[in-house]
Amino acid sequence: MTAIALSFLFGTGLFSVGSVVAAGSPYVGMQPQELPKKALAALGLADAAGAVAIRDVGRDTPAARAGVQRGDILLVLDGERIETLAQVIAIVTKASPGDVFDLTVLRNGEEIDLSLATEEWPEPRNIKKTFIGQIPALGLTTGALAPKMRTQFDIRWDSEGVVVTLVDPSKGVSEVIKRGDVIVQFNQQPIWLPEQLIAAYGAAKNAKLKAALVLLERANGYVFIMLPVR
To answer: For residues 58 and 158, is the Cβ–Cβ distance under 8 A?
Structure first.
């Protein structure tokens, strides 16, 4: 089975319309997946030639705002009856940011019509290269969430931030921040590039702050920590 994150963020083993397809494709923010015949029968769609289900919807995305939900079966997209993932990819690839898709989904036996306004790819979710940065005083090395980095650290496809790739235990911060943590904010400032984190840390140091409030994303959710400033 193939899956995509229609941005569609379709990602690793997923397909991300926007990073994997042509530049300029719109951002939608959901992950469709083509269903096998057994799944169609289980849903009472045994007579269908094929079907595509929405396996995930990104946080704060066009798909979420349109009302798309996990588990929806995508029946119609932009006037075309959908039976394969290839159809979905072709429709989104031809579109431009700002286009509006009319779609129909099957949810709990009911057909629901929705309207989805696409967007430009958000910069934090459209990083192609792996940028690395260090804060020597804390012994922290971080990396931007390019596709390979997301795969290596098993980071959720719609997460935004920088991933902690190394923590020097001799610097005394390894109890509060761990390898694989995603730094989302530094003193309420959104972070998605290591250089932004370095600049924010430098500003805190220039302001003679003793510590900074850092928001982390971990496998089990979000947490605030206090990170020393030296």
So the answer is: yes
